[in-house]
Amino acid sequence: MTDNSFDPATSDPRWQAAWDDAQTFRADSNSPKPKSYVLEMFPYPSGRIHMGHVRNYTMGDVLARYKRMTGHEVLHPMGWDAFGMPAENAAMEQGVHPGGWTRANIDHMKTQLKRLGFALDWSRELATCEPEYYGHEQALFIDLYEAGLVYRKESEVNWDPVDMTVLANEQVIDGKGWRSGAEVEKRKLAQWFLKITDFAEELLDGLGKLEDWPDKVRLMQENWIGKSSGLEFSFDLSNGDKLPVYTTRPDTIFGASFVAVAADHPVAQGVAADSQAARDFIAECKRGGTTAAELDTAEKLGFDTGITARHPFSGADLPVFIANFVLMDYGTGAIMAVPGHDQRDFEFATKYALPIPRVVAASADEADKAFTGEAEAGEGVLVNSGFLDGMAVDDAAREIIRRLEAEGRGAGKTVWRLRDWGVSRQRYWGTPIPFIHCEKCGVVPAAKDSLPITLPDDVDFRTPGNPLVRHPTWKHTSCPECGGAAERETDTLDTFVNSSWYFLRFASQPADQPCDREEIAKWLPVEQYIGGIEHAILHLLYARFWSRALSHIGLIDVQEPFASLFTQGMVTHETYSRAQDGRAVFYTPAEVKRTGDGAVLQDDGEPVEIGRVIKMSKSKKNVVDPDTIIARYGADAVRWFVLSDSPPERDLPWSEAGIEGCGRFVHRLWRLFAQHGANVQGGVQGADEALDRHIARTVVAVAEDIEALAFNKAVARIYELTSAVEKSPASASRSAAIATLVQLSAPMMPHLAEEAWHALGQDGLVADAPWPAVDPALLVEDEVTIAVQHRGKLRDTLTAPKGAPKDQLEALALGSEKLQRSLDGAEVRKVIVVPDRLVNIVT
RNA sequence: GCGGGUGUGGCGGAAUGGUAGACGCCGGGGACUUAAAAUCCCCUGAGCUUUGCUCGUGCGGGUUCGAGUCCCGCCACCCGCACCA
User: Fold this and answer.
1) ipTM rounded to 2 decimals
2) Which nucleotide is nearest to A216 (CA to C1')?
3) Which of A474, A495, A516 corresponds to the end of one domain?
4) pTM of the predicted model, to two decimals?
5) In what residue span(s) does the Aminoacyl-tRNA synthetase class Ia domain sit (predicted)?
6) What is the pLDDT of residues A509-556, one digit of tens each?
7) Residue A326: domain span
8) Model confidence pLDDT, tens digit, residues A441-497
9) Residues 798-827 of A with CB under 7 A from strand B
10) Which chain A residues 351-390 have CB under 7 A to strand B?
11) Same domain, A649 and A695
12) B24 C1': nearest CA residue
């Protein structure tokens, strides 16, 4: 080896081709090795990959390559979440077909991913927009229907009257359609739903077993499912009606001083029918924002209906208000308000001068203690509550439920926040819902042998509305039951359905069914799933639901598809801008040159303002293009950068200086390998024990770091070992260290590692090499450094034999000149000895 | 407002209750070179009366022989949200 430079432009493609030719990363379902399924969330084919993808897929890749080296049969697939609105937007804006646009994007992005040298099994690639995928999804949808997990009901949508289309929430801006600017209407449509609520309890319980999921994600899902238990009972109203309310604090029932209903509650509507004031108030409630933050800070408002509600125990007449803080779609849309023990009720009661009785106190003798400006939601004993007095909160709640149930006036009830999943989308670019509307037979599933029901290609997006509805022939078919003329369902499925089972199809892709039970059992669950926190709730909950639902119908036997979940941080970059006509104009990093602590625009040399480091986004122009970076530094430098420095769960600030440093390190490593190749021919002898120990330590530590996904730490250790090897004189140990270093860096810098492996004269691919073995004897240190402290402050460090007895360490420490100077003759009162660590002298 | 998280040099960050700042970036100095680039070596938390000492992990307390780490109370920022009765 005489060539002293490493050229990624020629080396990267060479090794990528070598892996392809050898089908190195093809997963064998029949392998006897232990399996490992490593999966990253598959991308939406938007057109180009971004740094977030690079970071996500590099993490998974390092793990996949490492797992291969440690003797696992690894499944590491890739595919495309290929249905969705951006393709239809492109169709409308650019006049291209969504399918053509999507497939071109896939081609391009696949090329980009290949440039990064990912160890992917491309033979299992799938795109959800292909009939080979969505046809099976249609079959699954029919299966779920037959199992009673699919139904239709009326539901409200955002309707854009100009574009004649349904809008997603994110497409409604200030109540107007994002494209047309038209006032959005609420329309009721019959839509398809999946019965996720049947699995609410299971999905909640299952979270407890997902120990390798972030607590944060589990908590978010728990809150989303939102189980609460309480009491539902009815008040008798002064107008003769009954008003059912739901409460989670039945124990505080004697503290109820008013009753409140939501603005769209039937009672409110009834009052509004002949009261202009009520109508005005209801309109006002609807004007305010509906987010939690808005509502929380908004003033509590109420409208006294004049109706009263008879308290079920005290018999008191409580006023009934319409209140802006009561939600119609939770519980019964009406509450008993207990101001003493609920902060919202407290604020309301204070504002409208309603009584605030105390019914829970720390002890019985504090029954009349005043409130200190806020409600008390804590534990205690019941007071001022008749037959409940003296009881603990939990016991009182049970007693109230028992009594009301015995009297047939109410019942304990569990209420969930989780609602059924609406999967209908009135769009073209999605999986056609495999149902047929027949005038005679009603809505019937398509025959399984008629699947896939494919999308028509001859559509145009110049006319408003869903092309499937407008298409001259597509929807016309015959009824599978009676054979008569019938129409296809023109709704398509939510794209979250596509991503709810793709990980199954990766593991097993028979032609005649969605997946094979045995093969699924072989590969699932996914050992490590990696993706963004933005999918913490919906995607991950839906995927868990689908696994359960498909298990429920006997297709697979997987309750939890993802054994371990990791959510990586975002890739960020500082922003560059100038104020122009009172607005900020942003510039891309490529247009800007950093100058020490400032930055100037390349074009005019004038300064630009350096803004906050935030997530890369097109609108702020703080993006760097992976292709440009790969072209300049090579794939390995980019991979190394996204693994370095920042812990993977935190944000990664991209910087030009940082990637340059990584590029330098790649070449530095190469020089080490290349020089060694030149030197080794003499056959170097001799051992270097310190280096041997360092290698052994590093091999173990890097393995631990990779398994913990602590890539930044693994990187630091490789830096350290590199420096140590560079500084060490020629020896057999050094030769061994260099081969080891190649193996250690192989998961992270696979191209360089292959090139070096080859140059060192090793056979085959380093991708197929095992993880380096370690002699356990080398991990045992025989000398340790002891810290010598005086009153907890470091005064000296000493070397001592490992395992030295306490008195020996104490004597050694007391012999330290530096310590004695610090002691300055003071009386030693106590000596703390921590074996192999430190001696602390207390005076 | 509620829930969760984070806070350590100029920057990204290390650190089972036991030597704070590993490793990288930036910066400074030097070597090599006609010169530059590349590369290599050294320095790089602050302060001071500099063989060394003092201070220092958002702020204020506490526990401990010893606290970045544990406890209590604050502050700032980030993320999530559904007034869930």
Assistant:
1) 0.93
2) B4
3) A495
4) 0.91
5) 417-574, 615-654
6) 999 999 999 999 999 999 999 998 888 888 999 999 999 999 999 999
7) 227-415
8) 999 999 999 989 999 999 888 888 889 998 999 999 999 999 999 999 999 999 999
9) 818, 821-822
10) none
11) no
12) A645
